[in-house]
Amino acid sequence: MTELTRTQRDFRAAMANLSAAVNVITTDGPYGKAGMTVSAACSVTDSPPTMLVCVSRSSRSHAVLAGNGRIAVNVLGAGHEELARHFAGATRVPTEERFAGGPWDTETHGVPLLLGAPASVVGRIVADQELGSHSVLFVEVEAVASSAEHGALVYFQRRFHSLSREEPCTA
After folding, report:
1. How many CB atoms within 10 Å of residue 42?
2. Burial class (CB in 10 A: 0-12, 13-18, 19+), 169
3. Rg (Cα) of the chain, in Å, rounded?
4. Measuring CA to CA, which residue among 4, 8, 19 is closest to residue 159?
5. For residues 140 and 125, what is the distance between their CA atoms, to the nearest angstrom?
6. pTM of the predicted protein model
7. 8 assigned to some structural domain
């Protein structure tokens, strides 16, 4: 691996200060079942409802996600840190065993949905834009499940943080 430039190091340090929701992206289909933890996912538009997800092209899951063409974006809540670590590969749990760590609905939409997640969004990949080391997958939404009962899991300063829904921001 080549050494990072100063700008790359500075950029990584700055991005560590960007709080981000933690998500597990899942798929199942002819290319197999896969999932991975990502923090780069967000809404694009509601006309038509579309999200984007950034995925490293070097990830083993990249080809499976793109090949199947349908994914679920499972937004993780407070208490899902271990699941996030599993799907990030930090616990060395083999891919096929990662789905044992949570209650999954694999039947309703044909892709694994995490039961009890604050939100799960199912859709099909309608565009794939490659830039540098990543692909930006544009996902047109087919179905949504959400619950306001959970807190959030965020990534900040290279660590996971749980936020409860009872902690209002006061200005």
Report:
1. 13
2. exposed
3. 16
4. 19
5. 6
6. 0.89
7. no
Range of the structural domain that residue 76 is part of: 21-162
Query: How far is it, in rounded angstroms, from Cα 116 to Cα 158?
Result: 25
Q: Read off the pLDDT of residues 3-22 as tens digits, 9 standing for 90 and up.
A: 989 998 888 888 787 788 99
With respect to residue 131, please indicate whether it lies within any of the assigned structural domains. Answer: yes
Q: Which residues of 142-152 are buried (b: 16+ CB within 10 A; e: fewer)?
A: eeebeeeebbb
* Span 110-163, pLDDT tens digits: 999 999 899 999 999 999 999 988 999 999 999 999 987 778 888 877 887 888
- Secondary structure letter of residue 170 according to DSSP: -
* Residue 147 lies inside a defined structural domain of this protein: yes
* Complete DSSP assignment for 95-150: HHHHGGGS-EE-SSSSS-EETT-SEEEEEEEEEEEEETTEEEEEEEEEEEEE-TT-
Does residue 83 contact residue 35 with C-beta atoms inside 8 Å? no
CATH number at residue 111: 2.30.110.10
Percent of the chain at pLDDT above 90?
A: 61
pLDDT at 167 over 60: no
Domain count along the chain: 1
Rounded Cα–Cα distance for residues 32 and 57 (Å) = 17
Whether 100 is in a domain gets the answer: yes
